[in-house]
């Protein structure tokens, strides 16, 4: 069975769903990624900085 091409079936609740991250958690995650960027400039730091920037652009402005 290929799960990527099979249609999703089953009942879905009409209950409101929680966000994966709250706004505060997302901001904290961005801050940690920016810190990682500064602490590891030659390794994964640039990738962490790019991810932080991508996430920050997706958040609504306060």
Summed up, what is this model?
This protein has 62 residues and is mostly helical.
Number of strands: 0
Catalogue the unreliable spans. none
Number of helices: 2
The whole-number mean of residue pLDDT values reads 84
Helix content: 40-55%
Q: Any idea what the shape is?
A: elongated
- Characterize the main sheet: none
Question: What key attributes describe this structure?
Answer:
about 60 residues, about 0% strand, elongated, 2 helices, mainly alpha
Structure characterization notes:
The protein is an all-alpha fold and 62 residues long. It has a domain at 23-58. The protein has two helices and no strands. The longest helix is centred in the middle third of the chain and has 17 residues, at 23-39. The mean pLDDT is 84.
